[in-house]
């Protein structure tokens, strides 16, 4: 199961707001989902329950209208989803795995290493070469949406794994491009690489990154550029008719974003409509 939060209090009415990891799935799947009104904090119970990823995809593919699903994976959950999609080729076509630089600072190699550990594949031994090749063939069929945010250019691990020539826009762009291109051994169908502050060196680097990924020889030449848009965010009116903007964090708490221009843009319906070829929404 994939959950947006690390706790279950915002999606269920669990009074203890327990960690997802503390609740067995057998118990979790029987809990009714709730809709939370951010204005008064009240919960409205629904008759819907939490489904496993496999069940959710099966349900989506039964719908008469075409639908695509981006599976928003955090902290080493992408491997489990990839294993599901390798096992169920019928679920692959309309599904893609979102892969964040925040959780995979080592890029594709980190992801692959985790799979090697799970399958007990030796990355160097010649006897395991056929198993490595078989895994490579399966991974090449899985759609992915790599996500590299501007803030990751300040991450020392990312810079160590994917070094650039300097800390200027060109060098920072080299880091971003290397991380994104590490996923070309899978099937990038979309990419999210957005500049949040276009006047900074990092913002200029993100613009350079997008330009380079659009080159004909790039692994992303046929990929759609996405403008990420968090639809669960909300605003509250002030007495003077202005608005305060908020985002839900991963433990169900509210964070005010009023002074953050890009944060406000992300919470505003339609603000990214023309910012990319594709729009991902929660």
Mean pLDDT: 86
Taking strands numbered 1, 2, ... along the chain, how are they ordered across the largest sheet?
Answer: 3-4-5-6
Structural class: alpha/beta
Q: Provide the β-strand percentage band.
A: 15-25%
DSSP E strands, number: 12
Number of domains: 3
Q: Which sequence of SSEs, written as H and E, runs from N to C? A: HEEHEHEHHEHHEEHEEEEHE
Low-confidence stretches: none
| End-to-end C-alpha gap | 16 Å
Proportion in helices: 25-40%
Q: Helical element count? A: 9
The main β sheet shows up as: 4 strands, parallel
Morphology call = globular
Radius of gyration: 20 Å
GO molecular function: glycerophosphodiester phosphodiesterase activity
Organism: Xanthomonas fragariae
Protein name: Type III secretion system effector protein
Domain GP-PDE: 1-206
What does this structure look like?
With 282 residues, the protein is α/β, with parallel strands linked by helices. Helix content is 30%, strand content 19%. It has 9 helices and 12 strands. The longest helix is centred in the middle third of the chain and has 13 residues, at 107-119. The protein is globular, with a radius of gyration of 20 Å. The protein starts with 24 loop residues before the first helix and ends with a strand. 25% of the residues are buried. The model has no long low-confidence stretch (mean pLDDT 86).
